Amino acid sequence: MQLIVQKFGGTSVADASRMKAAARRAVDAHSAGNRVIVVVSARGKMTDELLELAYEINDNPSTRELDSLLSTGEQMSSALMTMAIHSLGSPSVSFVGRQIGITTDSFHTKARIVNMKVDRILEELSKNKIVVVAGYQGVDENDNITTLGRGGSDTSAVALAALLKADMCDIYTDVDGIFTADPRIVPKARKLDKISYDEILELASMGAQVIHVRSVELAKKYNVPIRVRSSFNNGIGTLICREVMEMEDIVVSGATVTKNDAKITIIGVSDKPGQAAKIFHELAKENINIDMIIQNISAHGLADVTFTVQKDDLSLALETTERIKKEIQAKEIVADGKIAKLSVVGIGMRTHSGIAEKMFKALSDEKINIQMISTSEIKISCVIEEDQAEKALNAVHDAFELDKE
Ligand code: ADP
Ligand code: ASP
Ligand code: MG
């Protein structure tokens, strides 16, 4: 008997017929003799609609109240999914995060899971029930409802799979698996049969929305096998797993572009020890994630420091840097929200050369200017103008011939 976690994303539970189709998958797996946990997202665009509603009522809603509101989308889905399973004649029970002790830190709207109590789930599984869990949510130590960041239901599913040592975590979504690039932007994108934890981790953290970054971190740490697959057909999808030898032969396995970042430049910082530490210490205190950082030394002992943050954090990051402007003796702070970050990823980069050159050439052929560059062992990222994002992604996809096997 295997333990299977099935996670259904928004489109996969958008209306009654899709909800029933998802319930059918859970019931089939259960009837085949498996123990089954289903994790659900809010239906369709529900989370966006709830957010819109909040901002209609208040321009600057409290994040605690936002979490209370947003978590209801998943709660609704979990009850409806359980009803759908009942209608197919199988026993099932639903839980919201709080009922199964999903405890998180207190960073509202981007909380991280710190603990989970699984006794109640185990008890219901032992009664042969399909357990349905509302994704994306938990409570902090003071019993405030929290959410795990957009796309966070994947993380709820993988966290459960990790803790309960599930045999498989199936992430059902609206595409056939993980592609070489977002198929909505690159028509020639090709579905991958397999991808390593490290590669999808880089792709997801660089904007490939197909899976929540934190879920891959957990999956890698606890060795959870994940399959990303379509809820609309019976394809086997893409397996996310440990790296195997032959993966090194593929130099670039995917490319991605994101418009979720913004760039801040602090101009004319006096160039002396401790300045960068001061700036990034203040930003860290506000829990602002920094991605790329560059510093140019200009003449007369003054340096310019440029870094990127998530767009959502831009105003807080600006406020924070303005607050210490005097202390670091900076002349000016400029923000640019109209950027895109383009990345190519592949574990073969460790052993092959010429990748950066090929990427830069593809961009230069399209007359796309590169504003910032950063690299890791298996990734190269460039900041470019936002308007050129789609063109740039297609250009690098072509340059690396990612459409070919
Ligand atoms: P769900 O609601 O099921 O969680 P998401 O919208 O979060 O679904 O993720 C699926 C979407 O991710 C796809 O519709 C696709 O457009 C997008 N996507 C981005 N990059 C990729 C990629 N490399 N491979 C597959 N899908 C991708
Ligand atoms: N409903 C949440 C969102 O839209 C979480 C999720 O779908 O994973 O971001
Ligand atoms: Mg998602």
Verbal overview:
With 405 residues, this protein is an alpha/beta fold. The protein folds into 2 domains: 3-174, 3-Layer(aba) Sandwich (Carbamate kinase); 244-405, VC0802-like, CATH 3.30.2130. The protein has 11 helices and 20 strands. It has an 8-stranded mixed sheet with strand order 3-6-2-1-9-11-12-10, sandwiched between helices. A 4-stranded antiparallel sheet has the order 13-18-20-19, with helices on both faces. It has a 4-stranded antiparallel sheet with strand order 15-16-14-17, with helices on one face. α10 packs across α11 (389-399). The longest helix has 25 residues, at 63-87. It is globular and about 75 Å long. The structure holds adenosine-5'-diphosphate, aspartic acid and magnesium ion. The site of aspartic acid (ASP) has 13 residues, from α5.
Features:
405 residues; binds magnesium ion; 4-stranded antiparallel β-sheet; alpha/beta; Carbamate kinase; binds aspartic acid; globular; 11 helices
Query: Ligands bound here?
Result: adenosine-5'-diphosphate, aspartic acid, magnesium ion
CATH architecture of the largest domain: 3-Layer(aba) Sandwich
In DSSP terms, counting alpha (H) and pi (I) runs of 4 or more, how many helices?
11
When the domains are counted, the total is 2
Give the overall form: globular
Mean pLDDT: 95
Q: Over the alpha carbons, how many angstroms does the gyration radius reach? A: 22 Å
CATH homologous superfamily annotation of the largest domain: Acetylglutamate kinase-like
Proportion of residues in extended strands: 25-35%
